[in-house]
Amino acid sequence: MSLDNARSVLGVGVILALCWAASERRSAFPWRLAIGAVLAQAGLVLLLFGAPATRAVLQAAGAGVNGLSSSTQAGVKFVFGFLAGAGGQPYPVTDPSQLFLLGFRVLPVILVICAVSALLWHWRILRWLVQAFGFVFQKTMGLRGAPALATAATIFMGQVEGPIFIRSYLASLSRSELFLLLTVGMSCVSGSTVVAYATILAGVLPNAAAHVLTASLISAPAGVLLARVLIPREPEAETSSEFNAATLKVYESSIDALIRGTGDGLQIVLNVGATLIVIVALIAMVDGLLGMIPPIAGAGLSVERILGIVFAPLAWIMGVPWREAPPAGGLLGAKLVLTEFTAFLDLSKLGPTVISERTRVIMTYALCGFANIASVGINVAGYAVLVPERRGEVIAMVWKAMIAGFLATCMTAAIVGALPQTLYGR
Description:
Distance between the termini: 20 Å
Helix content: 55-70%
Oligomer: single chain
Structural class: mainly alpha
């Protein structure tokens, strides 16, 4: 084990210690859950990337993700023609990299995946997967039926879409369980964005789709663990009502699923696109103001540089070499203050002279989560509709959930960094 790998192990302990220090009840630290969650994450990575059979399955899933992205481009090209950048430009192309337009290459993928997910749910394929994962969470992490199912659904559907499946049970959840759902929602990403992130990283990270898929899956146990550390379980506040699978979402037909899934995807695409426009514009304004300050240490100030300095120690404790810690810290800051979309785009632009392949893998896992300031508003708005009587509780806990979700993906990245780089291959 190298020093970088050993530092990643230390990073897991530091993250757990930080959450314990901020716990509402330090004496109730869930030791068994902590050991089990860390071992489960490491075991899943070893299983998915180390065993030939599961590695083949993961690569096949990655190929499926890439195929969905390619198929989406056929639809985009049909509507937008050469503007989609999919070939056949009626002018000489001197820089092919400029043909990658976020609005035509990434956002439409979300639209297609939402429609396909709704169809798979109607066909009971995705529903079976969600219920299977929910059963695993219930038996291995001590979650009750409804929170376990919502946790599993969040992995596939997203931070607000997951809890929709147990909407009628949200009012009866304990405060600890409600916080757990908020945290897990910010620790993971949705199936639609997984494909989008894989598309962004496809040219700079080998097996990008496999890494993003794995990241979204294994960050859920970390989210559950850190949520239980910060706000420990309250058995006396948990009602005994059993979850009824008959309350799950139902589509009338396959066509209804496609149409409603497309409509849901359109809302997500519009929200993501509008958020990115506004946030990038605001950062440009701030950078303009910072540009009026004289250079410090031979370089001008910018949001990216400031975030890099602030989060460099966290990147270093996750296992990133100190030389690469400032740019890696900038990515962490961009993910938290801006969005993970912005951070993944920035990651795709960092060449091998700036960060190594090992650091790129670590940062892929650290960035793969919805924990950012924009998600705070999304959760408050979403839960205000789902369970309006608990809006005050959500507002009181959502910022802590954002930090917990952010640290959960960092913990996942540290566990990945602690394992041998040769495990991930090329």
